[in-house]
Protein: cysteine desulfurase
Organism: Candidatus Methanocrinis natronophilus
Amino acid sequence: MNPDEIRRDFPLLKDVIYMDSASTSLTPEPVLASILEYYRGYRANVGRGVYRLSRLADDIYRNAHRKVAGFIGAEGGVVFTRNTTEAINAVAYGIKWRRGDVVVTTAAEHHSNLLPWMRLKDRGIGLKIVEPDRDGSFDPASFEAAIGDDTKLVAMTVASNVLGTALPAREVSQICRERGALLLLDGAQAVPHVPTDVGDLGCDYLCFSGHKMLGPSGTGALWMREYDLLPLLVGGGAVEELDLEGYTLKGGYEGYEAGSPDVAGGIGLGAAVDYLRHAGMEEIALHEGRLTRRLLAGLLDIEGVDVYGSVDSRERVGIISFNVAGVSPTEVAHLLDEGSDIMVRSGHHCCIPLMRHLGLPAGTVRASLYLYNTAEEVEELLAAVEEISKIA
Ligand SMILES: Cc1ncc(COP(=O)(O)O)c(C=O)c1O
């Protein structure tokens, strides 16, 4: 991975220090080029026409599904969605529930991995919440205690979008297998940053966002072990046979992508996966690990700065939440933007229950890193935070 070469593909980085990739990532030139190429050269719908442009669009869109599946170590089973939220909702809708089934999830989840399960209450589905320790870490034993015979599904994130800490996904997968429960992993903060293999994770569903991994906005994916869910939408493009008495859906992803899909988005996501593979996921993880170690150590050294989550950078992805005593998270984010052109997120990060657990009603400042960030940028952030800590 050549950081200088990579940065040339993100022209926006000439003007700002972008540290909000956990929310959405920047998009490199080759991904933009793939989208323009589609619009300029072979714009047509997919799965419908027999003419040349439509066949070409269909081939490239279909191949993008293969690329995304390969990226997570799967052979098939990938359906394109708008984002992680849609992927999780598709599972919540699509499982054939029975009254009395229970979903186990955690208090550290993004709202997108909480609300879809809370809503199932109306259908007689129970919800059990596993609580983290004081610092936001999870003991696999608390999952042992929560997962019972009535547990239909465990839904948990691989890495926290607030603390950056990894949850014990593999241990939970083992417990699920022993107890016959399904496992949904929210990979929104893991798939873009660390090599991912669904076989190794041992899950049944993996949900993630294309727009957080260099893909276009409005892209995401759902991987399912078997095409066993009821589709969220039915309609055109998804039908194999139809008479007025009933219908048969197409096999594969097409049965789950009714309506004209975001062809350009899907093609762009395929190009994003090519880009990440070329940079090397191992290298990306190492690069982010180095930056995270320095950022963590640097923030811990600044008087008046509190850092949340594990202080062991090996247990983290490149997300760090912190606060500066006497300055609200929103104010810190404003000051970083106005004074130093540094873009970070502030607030509850769509994780109100975790914020309550940590006793942080105003939330945190969150810096999140990606392959295009540099050691110099980390030093600039540390210097800027130190300045802010002095005005408090
Ligand atoms: C862990 C996690 N899950 C789910 C989501 C929701 O992702 P999206 O907004 O792409 O649906 C996010 C977004 O930040 C996230 O970090």
